């Protein structure tokens, strides 16, 4: 069963087909969830189609309407279709539905639309800039507990005053580190310019004792619901792998390479992970090793209306050197981008 179908079935959102192309309830929620999944796969056109279908459905729950408009606006924004993005955000405002801050986001976008940064798909590469003065970003308590590390990539305009204006998150880490990166960058000082630039904010845990590294976390919490929160994330000291992976692990360490695994799972109403699906891995054995690792983690469960509910999560892990250096991370992203 495909990952997206498993996730929807788990939370009871997949509609039942009566005939080709027809859903029993024309469920806006089912189409919205599919749109979210296609967004995570960077399949923007198909995601946009699903959000349109959500708007043509039963609009139950009501928030699927306002958030489908916002998601369409985001897609048009990142693909350089400024006028269409503005139109979607205006339609979001017209719904009058502020579920999970929807109207606040729409109004904020419209207020700053004339100053927003639009990056057409055929634009030249964006230069990466280094600050001439900076403060280290702060870790959130949860991110430190989960031992999340890596780089948040922001895009912003470097002004003639040497500050980054209206930075936006391009590549996320999760667990509050994206927001901490934004806070830090707003205090950094750069060489005065007038360019759109990439700004990289690194989060590192140099005292790690494990060869496992968590490099991305993404919960799929619906608007109005609270996502799960890490209670513990145990990482084994030493090699931290089973006998089946040991020989390959020795080879990777010898040549300075990393093993990778990306998983989706569901945090149940008791805070335990389950229903694992493998998105990708450098070798099948690393998918098994990563699943065994994550299976030991525990969370405060996600809630909706104060009741614990199952909630999907996606994590990306790597195994290799104990210190995740910038060079290793760059190598990692090159491997992932090639897939």
Describe the structure.
By secondary structure, the chain is an alpha+beta fold. The protein folds into 3 domains: 113 residues, Serine Threonine Protein Phosphatase 5, Tetratricopeptide repeat, CATH 1.25.40; 63 residues, no CATH class; 126 residues, 2-Layer Sandwich (TolA/TonB C-terminal domain). 37% of the residues lie in helices and 23% in strands. A 4-stranded antiparallel β-sheet has the order 6-13-8-9. A hairpin with a 2-residue loop joins strand 11 and strand 12. Helix 2 packs antiparallel against helix 3, helix 4 packs antiparallel against helix 5 and helix 5 runs antiparallel to helix 6. The longest helix has 16 residues.
SSE string: HEEHHHHHHEEHEEEHEEHEEEEH
CATH superfamily of the largest domain: TonB
Query: How would you state the average pLDDT, rounded?
Result: 82
What percentage of the residues does DSSP assign to strands (E)?
A: 15-25%
Structural class: alpha+beta
Topology:
Elements: H1 3-10, E1 17-19, E2 22-23, H2 28-40, H3 44-55, H4 63-78, H5 82-95, H6 102-112, H7 141-146, E3 150-158, E4 164-171, H8 177-185, E5 195-203, E6 212-219, E7 229-232, H9 243-255, E8 259-267, E9 273-281, H10 284-294, E10 298-300, E11 303-304, E12 307-308, E13 311-319, H11 326-337
Antiparallel strand pairs: 1-2, 3-4, 3-5, 6-13, 7-10, 8-9, 8-13, 11-12
Name some characteristics of this structure.
single chain, TolA/TonB C-terminal domain, globular, disordered N terminus, three-stranded antiparallel beta sheet, four-stranded antiparallel beta sheet, alpha+beta, 11 helices, 339 residues, 37% helix, 3 domains, Serine Threonine Protein Phosphatase 5, Tetratricopeptide repeat
């Amino acid at each position: 069963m495909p990952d997206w179908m498993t996730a929807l079935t788990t939370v009871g959102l997949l509609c039942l087909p009566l005939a080709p192309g027809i859903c029993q309830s024309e469920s806006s929620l089912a189409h919205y969830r599919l749109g979210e999944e296609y967004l995570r796969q960077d399949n923007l056109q198909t995601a946009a189609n699903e959000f349109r279908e959500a708007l043509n459905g039963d609009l139950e729950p009501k928030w699927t309407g306002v958030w489908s408009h916002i998601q369409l606006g985001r897609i048009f924004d990142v693909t350089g279709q400024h006028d269409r993005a503005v139109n979607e955000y205006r339609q979001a405002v017209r719904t009058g539905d502020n579920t999970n801050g929807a109207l606040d986001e729409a109004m904020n976008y419209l207020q700053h639309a004339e100053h927003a940064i639009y990056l057409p798909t055929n634009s030249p590469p964006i230069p990466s800039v280094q600050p001439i003065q900076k403060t280290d970003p702060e870790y959130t308590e949860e991110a430190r507990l989960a031992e999340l590390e890596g780089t948040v990539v922001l895009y912003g305009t470097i002004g003639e005053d040497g500050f980054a204006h209206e930075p936006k998150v391009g590549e996320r880490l999760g667990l509050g580190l994206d927001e901490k990166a934004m806070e830090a960058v707003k205090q950094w000082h750069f060489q005065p310019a007038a360019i759109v630039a990439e700004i990289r904010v690194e989060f590192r845990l140099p005292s790690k004792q494990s060869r496992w590294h968590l490099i991305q976390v993404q919960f799929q919490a619906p608007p109005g619901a609270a996502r799960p929160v890490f209670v513990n994330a145990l990482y084994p000291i030493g090699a931290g792998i089973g006998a089946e992976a040991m020989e390959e692990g020795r080879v990777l360490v010898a040549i300075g390479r990393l093993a990778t695994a990306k998983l989706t799972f569901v945090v149940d109403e008791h805070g335990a992970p389950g229903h694992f699906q493998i998105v990708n891995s450098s070798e099948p054995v690393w998918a098994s090793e990563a699943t065994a690792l994550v299976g030991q983690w525990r969370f405060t469960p996600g809630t909706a209306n104060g009741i614990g509910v199952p909630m999907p999560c996606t994590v990306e892990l790597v195994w290799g050197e104990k210190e995740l250096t910038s060079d290793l991370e760059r190598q990692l992203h090159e491997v992932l981008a090639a897939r």
